[in-house]
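YM 10:42: Histidine kinase/HSP90-like ATPase domain-containing protein sequence, as discussed on the call
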Amino acid sequence: MDHRDNALRAMGWARTLPVSSGVRAGRAWARRHLDALGWTVHAPETADAVVLTVSELITNAHIHARSDADLVLTWDGSCLYVSVHDDSPQLPRPREAGPEATSGRGMRLVDALADAWQSRPDTRGKTVTACFHPPGRPGH
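YM 10:58: structure's back
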């Protein structure tokens, strides 16, 4: 048997954030896991981009979908996936927001910060997933 068969291939964390918990709890939770991965020390700009993306995706779930946000972070050694599921089947899209607008920039931010992102509907809503490669990795 090859020793690589026993190697850790991925790790992940999951948490449900009720509308009542606010976005702050999700940011703090994500930051703790980024600390555990060493990203806040070795890739602080990428860690900040991940936390901002978490904030935007949870905000979208709470405000636009009016639902709890199921947040999942998955690290596979190449990409940190940030996934947020909510109860709305409406897929997000980047949109233009005027200079005086107080909202409407969330998915544009995610698009600018993440190496890639996608959304997919399912039978009870949708999941939006963003991928972040640490600096020095392909795709960053």
